[in-house]
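queue> pop job 88
queue> type: inverse folding (structure -> sequence)
queue> payload:
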């Protein structure tokens, strides 16, 4: 199926590794030019080179997206390089444990406010050009209990923000969605590290918690994300799409 994404421009925040990288390369495979943002300049450059081998242009912005200026620079760089922003994907992840004030601040600042800030920055250029798509990566733990409290709360806030933003931007032909992965293992990621440290324990976890009997892959999440960003999903907005191998327990 042609997803009709050729020649469009996508900003991918968190595009240096894992799910964000997989989404970036999935979009590139469909012909999207990329503006990639994350902290690690070297990893960003690797992703950009991989994207360019697929025949698209890719620029990078290395910096701490917790800083307002860094977010502004990402959007400005994309507009300067490509003249438009058709898609924003935020794939920001941090492993949080504990319950002190610092943990809660990090959770809300990194997992919630970066996405809110970038969404606000792209809304006006999308409105002026006649529409666009904003896709935020949440988690099944934003929909139900599980994981660490600060992580859960930030991801739940993101899902709520998606719903309200979608309603506010629908008349501008801007679709806003969230994608909620289950437990995904990719090289260097949290679940991957746990598999290396405790393979037997992780095997038990999978058997007890994931009906499909394995961790998901970054590419499986990316496949759904790319579809959601495409015109083929043109009547989808405001919702959260779950990709979890049956792991979550919610009925809806």
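queue> result:
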């Amino acid at each position: 199926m042609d997803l009709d994404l050729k020649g469009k421009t996508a900003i991918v925040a968190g595009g240096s590794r894992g799910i964000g990288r997989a989404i970036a390369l999935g979009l590139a495979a469909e012909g999207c030019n990329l503006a990639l943002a994350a902290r690690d300049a070297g990893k960003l450059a690797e992703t950009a080179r991989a994207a360019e081998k697929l025949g698209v242009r890719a620029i990078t912005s290395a910096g701490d997206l917790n800083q307002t200026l860094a977010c502004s620079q990402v959007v400005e760089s994309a507009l300067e390089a490509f003249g438009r922003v058709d898609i924003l994907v935020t794939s920001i992840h941090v492993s949080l444990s504990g319950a002190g004030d610092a943990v809660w601040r990090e959770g809300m600042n990194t997992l919630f406010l970066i996405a809110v800030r970038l969404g606000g920055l792209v809304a006006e250029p999308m409105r002026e050009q006649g529409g666009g798509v904003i896709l935020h990566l949440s988690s099944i733990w934003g929909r139900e209990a599980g994981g660490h409290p600060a992580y859960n709360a930030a991801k739940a806030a993101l899902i709520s923000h998606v719903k309200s933003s979608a309603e506010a931007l629908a008349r501008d032909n801007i679709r806003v969605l969230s994608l909620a992965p289950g437990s995904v293992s990719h090289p260097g990621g949290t679940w991957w590290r746990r598999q290396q440290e405790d393979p037997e324990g992780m095997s038990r976890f999978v058997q007890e918690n994931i009906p499909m009997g394995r961790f998901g892959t970054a590419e499986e999440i990316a496949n759904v994300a790319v579809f959601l960003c495409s015109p083929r999903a043109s009547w989808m907005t405001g919702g959260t799409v779950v990709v979890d191998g049956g792991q979550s327990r919610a009925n809806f």
